[in-house]
Amino acid sequence: MNVKVTIDGKLYEVPSHYTALDACKAANIDIPTLCFLKELNETAACRMCVVEVEGARSLQASCVLKVRDGMKIKTNTKRVQDSRATTLELLLANHNKECLNCDRNGKCELQDLAERFHLKEIYFDSFEKRTPFIDDSSFSIVRDQSKCILCGRCVSACEKIAGMSVLAYTNRGFEANVGTGFNVELDDAGCISCGQCINVCPVGALQEKSHVEQVWDAISDPKKHVVIQTAPAVRAAIGEEFGLPIGTSCTGKMIAAIRRLGVDKVFDTNFAADLTILEEGHELLDRLQNGGKLPLLTSCSPGWIRLIEQYYPELLPNLSSCKSPHQMFGAIIKSYYAEKTKIDPKDIYVVSVMPCTAKKFEMNREELSHNGLKDVDAVLTTRELGRMLKEKGIRFNELPDEDFDHPLGEYTGAGVIFGATGGVMEAALRTVADILTGEDLKDFEYHAVRGFEGIKEAELEIAGNKISIAIAHGGGNARKLMDIIKSGKKEYHFVEIMGCEGGCINGGGQPYVNSHIRNEGIDYKKLRAQVLYNEDKSKEFRKSHHNKEVKQLYDEFLEKPNSHKAHELLHTSYKAREIFPIK
Question: Which residues make Cβ contacts (< 8 Å) with residue 541, sequence separation at least 6?
């Protein structure tokens, strides 16, 4: 059903479920927004989107105002413009304006609005927040209260995407802020470090904890042999940092750019993704055939690991004991690679470039070390890599395509798709099916596990075995699936969980996606995921057990999947974690 509305004197026909903001967008009128994110944060908190509606005494927030037949809207009157400018001045008066040293400089939505409205001065006196502080207790996320504009996006993301509700509004008036329960530090408040709050913050109030300087120090140290590994999802998004369209594959240019930072080797975490499948696939087979704890839950996502340790510790026995791929790779670099190159492991500095903020927490886990050395020494997000390349003056878009170093640079299509939700499951099934049937199956694409439904389920028959599987992505969906498993309503054999919606392609460390893109309904997660599926199809080998360099690793060093040596280096354990601990 459609209704007729008049916008700035012109008549339009729009669907009756539209808001005034939707109607204006359909009329090609750009209404400024700040707090609004379609289907995530529709609270009219900032009041930047106000319009004048005939018959209404006050200006109306267009993001929540439903259209009605005969409505007359004015979007650009002096009253409207003055109100928006005043609102913007009030926000800026209460905001830390040290823009030049802010990580969001040039990518800040508040900064963009200040430029749009051509503000030359702020009428209102600036005043400091009454509860200013920086919370850097987390290994992954830093909160700077002086930059918070109370838009509520992080609150909505934490509740609706992460499923945690760690962040909430506290106090009122000038004392209002966004904080944690009982004002405890973020690291103690049940946060899973997924970083989705960072992705939606329009300013610099939430940021990843940077490892950039320590990586520069390592590169500058002649005694350090610096190895960088890159996760599959990074190649699907790094181009966005240099103005390339979302969905541009940048594998070759990414390798060339990293090499020009001055590092010693550039390897691909996909190699370790293939290694993970060999370990995890055999772990699944062992549990299926020998009465092990089912369902087997994947352990690749550190945000998910924090979730289960904090909220479902009773299900910890179900977790795979496999380390995540980049941690496995770190362990292999400081053992097998060190042995082959005759480099002292103490002199090797492993940097993981990840789409994920929770990896910064993960690399600091005591369990993820060997012989007193951390598996991984630093984690850079995709955004941090972009900053380093720009700082070095590397012209990313003009670089030739280059290849990863060897012997730890080979990867299969199965390793690539790890970066999208359902990818770990599909990669594992490709290998498990071949092992169970004793054949090299030609039909190995499992489309039932692909896509962006919050929870996906399927039952497969492989070599006479019925295998029930489930996939969830995003903390909220993970909790729903865990509640189903706990209740006993459904039984599964194998379950994949990713802490971020869409999987790693939408990790908390990926390039910022402008709110206009989100609000236009452009499916950036699908565009990034397609990069990975396209690369999978382009690979000669698409099953992890066909990776020749992984086979060589087992022949020369690890013996076989789940061997004693493999468990020593590639497996770990997890533990229950307390929320709001008494200190």
Answer: 412, 413, 547, 548
Query: Which residue, 505, 254, 220, 212, is CA-closest to 378?
Result: 212
Q: Which of 253, 265, 359, 374 is catalytic?
A: 359
46 catalytic residue (yes or no): no
Active-site residue 280, yes or no? yes
- With residue 379 as reference, give the H or E element that holds it: strand 378-381
Residues 6+ apart with CB under 8 A from 513: 199, 246, 524
362 part of the active site: yes
* Catalytic entry in 52, 109, 279, 280: 280
CA–CA–CA angle 544, 547, 550 (5° rounding)? 100
113 contacts 48 by C-beta, under 8 angstroms: yes
Amino acid at site 495: V
Phi-psi region of 247 (alpha: psi -120 to 50; beta: other; left: phi over 0): left
457 classed as catalytic: no
Is residue 20 a contact partner of residue 60, using CB atoms and an 8 Å limit? yes
Contact by Cβ (8 Å): 465, 435: no
Q: Which residue is catalytic, options 148, 197, 500, 504?
A: 504
Catalytic annotation present for 89: no
Side-chain-facing half-sphere of 538: CA atoms under 13 Å: 9
Please give the single-letter amino acid code of residue 175: E
Q: What is the CA radius of gyration of the chain?
A: 25
DSSP state of 565: H
> How many whole angstroms separate alpha carbon 47 and alpha carbon 212?
37
In angstroms, the CA 198 to CA 278 distance is 34
What pTM value is reported for the model?
A: 0.95
The H-or-E segment that residue 373 falls in is strand 373-374
- Quick check: is 283 catalytic? yes
Among 159, 362, 426, 535, the active-site one is: 362
CA–CA gap between residue 471 and residue 343 (Å, rounded): 41
Contact, 184 vs 137, CB < 8 A? no
d(CA 231, CA 503): 12
Domains and CATH numbers, the chain: 2-76 (3.10.20.740), 107-207 (3.30.70.20), 212-570 (3.40.50.1780)
Instruction: Classify residue 480 as exposed, middle or buried by CB count within 10 Å of its CB (0-12, 13-18, 19+).
Output: middle
| C-alpha–C-alpha distance, residues 286 and 292, integer Å | 7
Per the CB < 8 A criterion, the answer to whether 434 and 461 are in contact is no
d(CA 73, CA 10): 10
300 an active-site residue? Answer: yes
What is the block-wise mean pLDDT of the chain (583 residues), using blocks of 10 residues? 96 97 96 96 96 97 97 97 95 89 94 91 68 86 94 96 94 86 92 97 97 98 98 98 97 98 98 97 95 96 97 97 98 97 98 98 95 96 98 97 95 96 96 95 93 95 93 97 96 97 97 93 96 97 97 97 96 92 69
SS (H, E, C) 438-461: CCCCCCCCCHHHCCCCCEEEEEEE
